[in-house]
Each structure stands twice: as structure tokens, then as C-alpha cells.
Amino acid sequence: MKKIIMKRPVLAVVAAVGIIGGVTPILANASSFGSPSATKVVMNEEGKQVTRYNLKELAKNDPETLNLLLKTQADHLYIIVDEIKLNTKLQTYMEENKDEWERIYNQYYSDIWLEVRFADEKEEIVSVSAQTQSKKVYVKGIVTEDVTKIVVKKPNGDNIEVVPTSEHSFTVTFPSLDVSTEQYVTVSAYAGTALVDSEKVKVIPQAEEEADMIIHNLAVLDAKKGELKVKGIVKLDADKVTVTYNGVKADAKVKKLWDGVGSFSVTLKEVKSTTGKATIEVYENGEKLDSDSIAVEVVNAPDKEAVKTYAISGTAALDPKNKSIQLKGTVVGWSKNKGVKLFVTTLDGKKQEVKPNDKGEYSLKLSIKQGSFDAQAVRLELYVDDKLVKQADMTESIKKAITEAMENQANKDEDDDKKDKKDKKDKKVKEKHVPNGNAYGYWKKQGEWNQHGQDDDDDNDRDDHDEDEDN
Predict the structure, then answer these.
(1) Which residues fall in a compositionally biased region of kind Acidic residues (predicted)?
(2) Strands (E) located in 305-373
């Protein structure tokens, strides 16, 4: 099958599911998603209500949440496309039916739904973490609704029992041990008196946890509105995020997405700069836990004016009769409404403004006065906002025009001299052949002169007529 090129923005995220796998799952809370069209509640085969997430809507309205959902739920995420009756595990389907997955992705993009589903009913501990903070160990997690008791075994062997909350979450706290070795806790889940699940968890030192409070963030600057929107996902128990960009600062509260994970969104107004990075600081009860600098994506940026290219072209022609030199040419980049001005330095060294037409075409005459002719002084200068951006030396063009004019005049004088000589010669020839006095009897025939007395009987000249009268 021919490979289909996918152009959806979320493709890279979806493809990442096949690589990431093995991450501790986090059960998403449908109420945390802002767009109603992104989720729907259906009844599963066991008659229980489950939440499904629309791939397109999440990609469009909440890409950060979709990113996190796909990554953390790799082992428990199912794909449902009702139109073709597809209902299977996403990661497995992608790996085993790559071409078919690409076709479905492109053809049914708007109708793809995702569902978090736990195939193994013995997996009652949905998520759990253990971390140190302020010399205390916090063990937090979420379990299924069947779990009635949680037992946490501390690194020193002591046990702590707790009952899950109505939201099926739990938290256990105890003093941390001042040791350099790795510490672990064991979390056991019970349904009544029966052990249904157990998991060994590493205790994350506070230094490592603080360095990794920010899970994901995104900063987009609308240059036209002057608004910077920053969204992100952080770990709880962070309660506030501060965003700073080029001196503008704003705070945002952290809202719980699901257990151990929160989101924030903040908008900075009257932002003028389009360079630099935004700084994100994460706080809990006024204490800074983490910070990060992120690149800012700029949208609706005004088109940068193309760098103007300026040029001056021109030719010169000498007008001896009017004792002037005419300059004609074009200014590339001319715009009379943007502070662009053209000046010429005349033959006498003075400067005057030239005003081209809307197309940048100019034409001017430079008067030649005796004793003041200096072709090397003539040049054109183009200024933009009183700054010289281009100049053109017209010396060579003027010299060429003068040379051509002189050559033309010399050729004309030579032609006139030849014509005078020819006219004089023709006049002499004519005077030589024409007799003095009465020219009667002297006729021109076929371009030749016929002198009286040389009769030609074959013609019909008047001399033949005279002889007939004599006879």
C-alpha cells in the first residue's frame, strides 16, 4: 500500500506513543477538559460509564493535555472509530497495522476517539509517586473504586494504613531519613481483606523533584494584539506560576487536572517586543520550586518591509543650439511619499532638487555658461530621510554626449563642405556648355546637348520644320 503522508499537527505526538511506553499511567479526569466537544461519556461492555476523548478536539483546543495523555497512557490507551467498528489498543494497532493506521488517521481524523482502559483487573493501583519535600516524604496515588485500604511500607520497615478518599486518591506523609542511599516504599492495595495490587516505588529526592516540576509549557505571542499567552502543565503541589517576558509579569493559579498534575494559563498584555524568552517560575505557598526559560512563538507578526534597493540610471545629451545638457533617467526605489528626494549638482557646482514622476522617471536641462563648464561636477544624489543612499556620477555620460555631439558636428561640417564643392563644380560645368546670348537652336535631347546646325532628320525638332519652309 502506498504510504500516506500525514500533515496533522498531532501526528508526532501520536507516533510517540509507540516509543514511550512503560510510563506509570495517570487516569484523566474528564471534568478537567475545557471543551465539552472534546469528551463524551459512554457505557462500556460491563455497564460502567467511561469517558472518551476526541483526538481532533484535543489537538485543536488543548494540545498540551493531549500530549501528556498520549505519553502517560501509552499502555492503557484504546482507539475507537465507530464508523468502521474499530475498537482496539492504539499502540498495538499502530505497530502491527502501520499503513492501515495511517489511512484511518487521515480519513477519520475527526471521528477518532481515545479511551483509557485497564485490561488487567488486578491492576488496582492506577498511579503512585513518592518524593521528599521539606524533610518529609509524600506518598501520593490514585486507585480504582474497588480498593478500600492502602498500606504503605516505609524504608525502615514500618507500615502506615490509610483509606482512599471519595475521589479514590490517597496521601501518606512521614519524616524522611537522612541517608545517602536510595530509598523505596512499598504500596499495597486491599479490597476488604484481600491484597489486590502492590507496587514498589522509589523515593525521589527533593533536589531532583524541584528540577522537574514543569512538565510541559508553550508560549505564543500575538504581535498584532500585543498579547503573550503561556500555557503549561506542572506537578502538584505547585499552586502558582509567574511568567515574565521583557519586563512584563503576570501570575496564574494552578488548576488540578488529575492527581499529581495541574495546569496553568496566563496572558500578558501590552507586550511590544518580539524577541527573547519567557521565564516561568513555579511556587508553592510563596516558595519557588522550579523555573525555566522558554522560546516564544510569534504569530500575526507584521510583514517586515523588504529591504529597499535603490539605483540611479541616466543618460546625457548635448543641445548646442540651446547651450544646454539634457539629463534623462530613472530612479529605482523612488517614492515621493516616503521621504525620498533626488538632487543634482549642476555644471557650476550648485545643488538643486529634481522631482521625478510617480514612476521615478526624471528629465532636466543643465544650462552651459561660458567659463563655468565643469562636467566632473555633475552628479545625482538620492536621499532617504535625509540620509544619502545612492549617488551617480554623470561625468562620463556628459563627456560621451559632448564627444558624440562634436563628432556629429564634424561629420556635418564635412558633409556640408563636400556639398558646397559639388555644387560649385556642377555650376562650372553648366556654365561651360551654355552659349552666350540667344540660346535658340540649342536644345537638350535625352540628357545631351544638340548644337544648332547639326541636323537630325530622324527627329521632329524645330530645325526640320524650318528647312521645310525654306524648300
Answers:
(1) 455-471
(2) 311-319, 324-332, 340-345, 351-354, 361-367
